[in-house]
Amino acid sequence: MAAQINPSILSADFARLADEARAVEGADWLHVDVMDNHFVPNLTLGVPVVESLARATGTPLDCHLMIEDPDRWAPQYVEAGASSVTFHVEAAAAPVRLAREIRAKGARASMALKPATPIEPYEDLLPELDMLLIMTVEPGFGGQAFLDIMLPKIRRTRELIGKHGLELWLQVDGGVSASTIERCADAGADVFVAGSAVYGAKDPAEAVRALRNQADA
Ligand code: DX5
Ligand code: ZN
Fold first, then answer.
1. Which long-range contacts (CB under 8 A, 24 or more apart) does 68-76 make?
2. Which residue, 198, 197, 191, is CA-closest to 215?
3. H/E run at residue 179
4. pLDDT category of residue 155 using cuts at 50, 70 and 90
5. Rounded average pLDDT over 156-162
6. Which residues of 63-77 are buried (b: 16+ CB within 10 A; e: fewer)?
7. Distance, CA 92 to ligand 1 centroid (Å)?
8. Which helix (H) or strand (E) holds 85?
C-alpha cells in the first residue's frame, strides 16, 4: 500500500479548525486526538467538535481516543462522523466486542498500544481490526521526541500481520517527521500521523506531500 499521511490537528490552531483542516486537503485522513485528562494528562475535544469537523471537511476523520471507558464512547464518535476510530487497549474493557461494534456501525476499527504495551498478547485480536496504532511517544502531547526503541515492535507487528495474511494497516503516531519517517516505513508502518511536522511547517500541504514521498521512497 502507498504510504498514508494523517496530519494531527492537535498541532493546529483550535480557534480555526475548519481552515486548518482545509489547509491539508490532499492528506489521506485527518487525525483527531481526543483526550479526557484521565487516560492522559491533557484535555482536547469531544463529540460535538468531531461532528462539526466532519461537516467542515471532506477529508475522512481518523479519531484517536486517548480516553477512559472507550467501550462507552467510541461508538458515539462513529455516529459523529469519524471514518476510523482508534481506542487504547489499556483502557478498553472488551476490545473484541468494541472493535465489532465500531465496524458494525460502519467505521474502521483500530486499536492503539502505548509504548510499554507489547503486541504479543493481542496477536489473536488482529483479525478483528482494520488498523493497529503503535505509539512512538507517550500519548498526551504533540512535539515530543520519537522513541526509536519502538522500531522492533513495529517490525514484529508487521511480521504478525504477514503471518496471518491480514490487510491490517499499521499506524505510527508521535515524533514522526522528515528525520524519522523513513525508519518507520522501513520497519513496516504504512500510515503515519504527523502533528508538528505538518502544522509547524510553512506550507502544511507541501509538508504532507514531502512526507509521503519520503515514506514511499
Ligand atoms: C500524541 C498524539 C499525537 C500527536 C502527535 O499523544 O496522539 O497524535 O498529535 O504529534 P507530533 O507529530 O508532533 O509528535
Ligand atoms: Zn494521536
1. 68/36, 68/38, 68/39, 69/93, 70/98, 71/97, 71/98, 73/47, 74/98, 74/101, 74/102, 75/101, 75/102, 75/105, 76/47
2. 191
3. none
4. very high
5. 98
6. bbbbbbebbebbbeb
7. 21
8. strand 84-88
Candidates 28, 36, 130, 173; catalytic one? 173
Domains recognised in the chain with CATH numbers:
4-216 (3.20.20.70)
Nearest atom (ligand 1) to Cα of 143: 13
Residues, the chain: 217
Answer yes or no: are the C-beta atoms of 85 and 110 closer than 8 Å.
yes
- Cα–Cα distance, 34 to 29 (Å, whole number): 15
Per DSSP, 9 falls in state G
Instruction: Check pLDDT > 90 for residue 62.
Output: yes
- Residues flagged as binding site for a divalent metal cation: 31, 33, 64, 173
> What's the grid cell of residue 185?
516505513
Q: Give me the interface pTM, i.e. the ipTM.
A: 0.99
What does pTM read for this prediction? 0.98
The C-alpha angle with vertex 125 and arms to 172 and 33, in degrees rounded to 5, equals 35
Stretch 183-189: mean pLDDT, rounded? 98
Please count the other Cβ atoms lying within 10 Å of the Cβ belonging to residue 82.
30
Among 28, 33, 36, 62, the active-site one is 33
Whether residue 1 is predicted with pLDDT greater than 90 in this model: the reply is no
Contact 122, 111 (CB under 8 A): yes
According to the model, what pLDDT value does residue 52 have?
97
